[in-house]
């Protein structure tokens, strides 16, 4: 864009640091930035279906941010780390404003939350501007685990991968990833229970951080599993994701037990101190080839993975190859491990509690949601996808002893599998291509960071996933940041390019 004084500043692909520099140099105002993203949403959302609602107060919030910037003499250090930065939050994250919080479902349209979710409170305190709600797989795809497409919800329709129209956008934080990838917003927030930050970030060529469970408060977020739910950033760069992470972590009495356990894992001075360009030097990285690499044999993704392993070595990391995770095949089967059963039972209890805590709501129980869908089949468009997942959750009933046994099994699989491999080999991270390793993190509440790793023969993005034990975010950040700087793989989708249809595969991007 051309600013009032004739100087250019390119908003596309801009980072938080770049935006703040532009504010300081008077190349950009917060209002100009917000208006740009609103225009992007208006232009692209009919194609991508990434945004459910836009905040009607976004412009006023931007004007207020500009006033405060001028009042402090243009010294952003006196304001929050995210001052003036537009953010979208997933439609399951509560906001005490004019926006709805519906998990993509018409059954919660018009419901009223008691207050902002804690993560939204912290974003506002850091100076961020809430632009609106990102679309998602309805009810985290629990609505129908077997039939509901990733990225679909009744309220906004089918989310579309901005790189290849026919490609899976993944979910359930699909809109959060699509909108950031397509430069419809600066940064976003997603949630992750099993794969919902890592997978859409991987599939849409952006950075996603799944924090250790309990590092970030879940208070005010529509729940699935108290054991596995976490909230984290989805951004275009590791540094932006870390700035957002710093703003949202910490103890919260509203999510007391989980955040109390994890608050001691947060380093003094936060996480941005670990944005170290030399962060790979001396790190020990584990490579588990079966099944995460062998399943990709001969593909461009497998070739790129080997190329990236070479880059990791070249930048000072030691790779321990051909490691194994005990019972990995069982871990990767959520039905066999018991993860799905535990998740469904937890969802039934936690969603009923959440609904009863709303100030007002058309539904007050999971049974009410199911009845609403049956009564409003045309509105909910559920003739095609049904709601077998919601019904399964409603019919799931575990005794205290049965639930305890499943949790003990999941803990044992984690301790004797991933944890044992990490500790015995003194690893700083496990590195895997794509998303196949996600269940390893999910069942143990472990953190992970995915960074763009390339594009396959059809132009579909894939990422490099760095996973660690609880509280290992500092090491993961160092590794991911240094890897990102060494490879610089991410390319924006080709919207607006006259020589290429916006939905065509991006064949000519460098795979590496």
TrEMBL record:
Domain Amidase positions: 33-473
Region (Disordered): 493-512
Top-level division of the source organism's lineage: Eukaryota
Biased composition annotated in UniProt, kind: Basic and acidic residues: 498-512
One Pfam entry name: Amidase
Protein's name in the database: Amidase domain-containing protein
């Amino acid at each position: 864009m051309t600013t009032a004084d004739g100087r250019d500043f390119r908003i596309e692909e801009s980072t938080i640091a770049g935006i703040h520099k532009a504010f300081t140099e008077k190349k950009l105002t917060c209002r100009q930035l917000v208006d740009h993203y609103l225009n992007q949403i208006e232009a692209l959302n009919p194609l991508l279906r990434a945004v459910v609602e836009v905040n009607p107060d976004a412009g006023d919030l931007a004007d207020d941010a500009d006033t405060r910037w001028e009042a402090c003499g243009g010294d952003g250090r006196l304001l929050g780390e995210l001052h003036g930065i537009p953010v979208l939050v997933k439609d399951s994250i509560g906001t005490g404003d004019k926006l709805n919080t519906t998990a993509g479902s018409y059954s919660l349209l018009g419901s009223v939350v008691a207050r902002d979710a804690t993560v939204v409170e912290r974003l506002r305190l850091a100076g961020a501007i809430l632009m609106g709600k990102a679309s998602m797989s309805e009810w985290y795809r629990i609505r129908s685990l077997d039939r509901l497409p990733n990225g679909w919800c009744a309220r906004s329709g089918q989310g579309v991968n901005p790189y290849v129209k026919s490609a899976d956008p993944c979910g359930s934080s699909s809109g959060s990833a699509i909108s950031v990838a397509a430069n419809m917003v600066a940064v976003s927030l997603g949630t992750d229970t099993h794969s919902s930050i890592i997978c859409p970030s991987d599939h849409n060529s952006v950075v996603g951080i799944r924090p250790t469970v309990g590092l970030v408060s879940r208070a005010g977020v529509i729940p699935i599993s108290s054991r596995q739910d976490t909230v984290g950033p989805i951004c275009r760069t590791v540094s932006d994701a870390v700035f957002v992470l710093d703003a949202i972590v910490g103890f919260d009495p509203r999510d007391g037990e989980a955040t109390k356990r994890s608050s001691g894992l947060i380093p003094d001075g936060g996480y941005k101190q670990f944005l170290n360009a030399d962060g790979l030097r001396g790190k020990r990285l584990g490579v588990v080839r079966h099944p995460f690499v062998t399943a990709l044999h001969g593909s461009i993704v497998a070739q790129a993975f080997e190329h990236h392993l070479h880059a990791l070595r070249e930048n000072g990391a030691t790779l321990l190859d051909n490691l194994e995770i005990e019972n990995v095949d069982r871990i990767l089967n959520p039905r066999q491990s018991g993860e799905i059963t535990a998740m469904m039972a937890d969802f039934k209890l936690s969603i009923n509690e959440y609904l009863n805590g709303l100030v007002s709501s058309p539904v007050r129980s999971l049974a009410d949601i199911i009845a609403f869908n049956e009564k409003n089949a045309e509105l909910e468009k559920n003739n095609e996808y049904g709601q077998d997942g919601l019904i399964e959750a409603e019919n799931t009933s575990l005794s205290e002893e049965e639930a305890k046994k499943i949790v003990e099994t999941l803990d044992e699989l984690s301790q004797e599998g991933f944890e044992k491999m990490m500790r015995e080999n003194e690893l700083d991270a496990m590195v895997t291509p794509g998303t196949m390793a996600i269940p390893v993190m999910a069942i143990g509440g472990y953190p992970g960071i995915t960074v763009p790793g390339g594009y396959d023969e059809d132009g579909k993005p894939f990422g490099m996933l760095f996973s660690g034990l609880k509280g290992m975010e500092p090491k993961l950040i160092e590794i991911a940041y240094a890897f990102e700087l060494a490879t610089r793989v991410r390319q924006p989708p080709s919207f607006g390019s006259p020589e290429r249809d916006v939905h065509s595969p991006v064949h000519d991007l460098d795979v590496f």
